[in-house]
Amino acid sequence: MLNLFPWQQAQWQRFLSMQNQNRLPHALLLTGNQGLGLMHFAQLISRHLLCLNPNADNQFCGACQSCQLFEVGNHPDIQIIEPEEAGKQLKVAQIRELIEFMSLKSFTTKNKIVTLCPAEAMNRSTANALLKTLEEPPAQSMLILISHHPERLPITIRSRCQRIEFKPAANQGTIEWLEQQNIEIDYSVDILLNLTGGAPLSIIDMLENNIFAERQHVVADIENIMKDKVNVIELASRWESLGCGQVISWLMRFCQDLARLKLLGSEAEVINSDLRHQLLNLAKHLEINRIMHIYDYLQDKYLESTAQSNFNSLSLLEEIIIYWNNPEHIK
Length: 331
Ligand SMILES: [Zn+2]
Fold this sequence. Notes:
This protein is an alpha/beta fold. The chain has 2 domains: 6-167, Rossmann fold (3-Layer(aba) Sandwich); 210-325, Zinc Finger, Delta Prime, domain 3 (Up-down Bundle). The chain has 15 helices and 5 strands. The protein has helices at residues 9-20, 38-50, 65-71, 92-103, 124-135, 155-158, 172-179, 189-195, 200-208, 211-226, 232-242, 244-264, 276-284, 288-306, 313-325, and strands at 27-31, 78-81, 112-116, 141-147, 162-165. The chain has a 5-stranded parallel β-sheet with strand order 2-3-4-1-5, sandwiched between helices. The longest helix has 21 residues, at 244-264. Bound molecules: zinc ion. Residues 51-53, 60-61, 63-64, 66-67 line the site of zinc ion (ZN).
């Protein structure tokens, strides 16, 4: 049986219909947020295309030599290219390795499949190195690019790939899947999907690491910032340990809720409904203009933090803490 996640059904059908019509491209671009299982999907495609004996429903058999090699994680026709360290760029040498791999003859006499993730970890020279392969793909090869920020890919790369897009997951199947995961969920599934932008695998990860509970502390931190009761450096380093991008995205969602509470009153619908009481309290001490300024500022900082370039997350968080209290003094 194919082990698809319930939010990947439409994308899988799209892939199958390309295959059934003999329109499979040499390069696929899978796009969507982190936490949607795009690598998992790419692996399913690889396994599916390499099976030597697919059954009538077009599913891999699980028994042939190719399926067995896949099972032990040692298939010679599959390669995965990732940055050597998370958050770092891909190297030209890695792209050369990819090109050489794709030009070799397939072991199972089917395809050679390379998955590259994340594609936005290519800079101009790595993208150029890859471009030639995209323009003249070796026979019987497939390249699967995975991107969480496709807007950052050069148009020359994007235009040569067939794109399969994954939207935030929120369907009934997803909700049931989450409820079946045997984890203690103290929050409603709606809140969790809202907080992660519809990324079920991120929810699992964050629940296991008790990350959601940390949001409560961050709201308390903001109360303390506003009372001038924090050590900026200490707080920034604690926030950094939670993940810089993570904390900024929480702060942005807090601001959205604060603005709603301010404009629509205490009963307004909010994202962080489990923190309504604390947020209401904060809203009392903030003017709407200031909330908007802070939100804009956070949005800029969020883009900075995800722009891959080597940024200093500690000083970025320090700036945010200082800005929260003095938005009119900076910029
Ligand atoms: Zn098989």
